[in-house]
Amino acid sequence: MPLRHTALACLVAVLWGINFLAIHASLEQFPPVFLVALRFAILAVPALLLVPRPQVPTRWLIGYGLGFGTLQFFGLYLGMAAGFPTGLASLVLQASAPFTVVLGVLFLREPMTRRRAVSVGVAVLGLALVGLSRGSAESWWPFWLVVLGAFGWAIGNLSSRLAAPPKPLHLIMWMTVVPPLPMLALSLVIEGPEQIRAAWSTAATAAAVPAWLGLGYTVVLGTVVGSGIWVWLMKRHPAGVVAPFSMLVPVVGITAAWLVLGETPSALEVAGGVLVVVGVLWGNGTRGRWPQTVGRRRRPTSTATTPDDTSSMPIARKMPVAPKTDIHIATSRPAP
């Protein structure tokens, strides 16, 4: 990728890593399930009014919204609200990669190569170490909620792949129409009207400003700007070139949580995190393929002729024509 595009990919990783701090700030004011409904309701209104409906089957649009938008953030927000560390949540959510591989094998009949099997095994081992570091059932429960969120992301990955949208950003925006109503219904059941009313009663106070700033960051920078740049990059470069930059997200998330919130991961959590990252990167590897789209080899040129016209050259000076090469595009899971 050009240096400017590499910088944009790094910028998205920073935006998404800091997004976990923004979620943490919003959870200080709003109940988690209600916060998911509020987040996507804010996005759904302009999507319905300003963005054309994506040209994809309705079932995959709903599947993407239920997986990526509903189940992912239901598990993530509940897990973080229950006490799972902010920085570590950014790492555990990367479990969506091995989940996506397994679901692709089961439902899309994608081949389970040895490389993919090893990557899934290494990532699962890393998650197991992170889970063991929690130490007790009370700590495991938030961990499993975040893992559930990663599983929802994987369902969203499969749905978006089956949808094959001609304009991916339209699918991302219209996905936000799905979560608000089911999340609001779940919030009324799980959290209750009293908890929602209590949150709204102090929402206009100075103490709630960080929560609103966090929500604004999540909606504008985390979703619209971050996803918009990511989709733009994915359209211009092979997925295998762009997707590994998502591994910078937990690095940024853990570092930001350490600097701002004072969270310090244990040695076992660090070891597990390293295994998760290694496993995902190994699964994203492109061994045996070109790292980017490759076109025809350039043929030797002359100042007197075009590359395809050697008829006017003396026979002794004609240059051999290089054979055409096939086009290979490395693939990997897209990041949302």
TrEMBL record:
Location within or outside the cell: Membrane
Alphabetical list of Pfam families matching this protein: EamA
Chain intervals for the UniProt region annotation (Disordered): 289-317
Superkingdom, taxonomy of origin: Bacteria
Name the UniProt record assigns to this protein: EamA family transporter
Entry keywords, A to Z: Membrane, Transmembrane, Transmembrane helix
Protein family membership: Belongs to the EamA transporter family.
Residue ranges with Low complexity bias: 301-312
Start and end residues of each EamA domain: 8-130, 143-281
SUPFAM superfamilies the record matches: Multidrug resistance efflux transporter EmrE (SSF103481)
InterPro entries (alphabetical): AA-Vitamin_Transporters, EamA_dom, EmrE-like
Main location: membrane
Gene3D superfamilies: 1.10.3730.20
Transmembrane segments: 7-27, 33-51, 63-82, 88-108, 117-135, 141-159, 171-190, 210-233, 240-261, 267-283
Annotated Gene Ontology cellular component terms: membrane
Membrane-protein topology: Multi-pass membrane protein
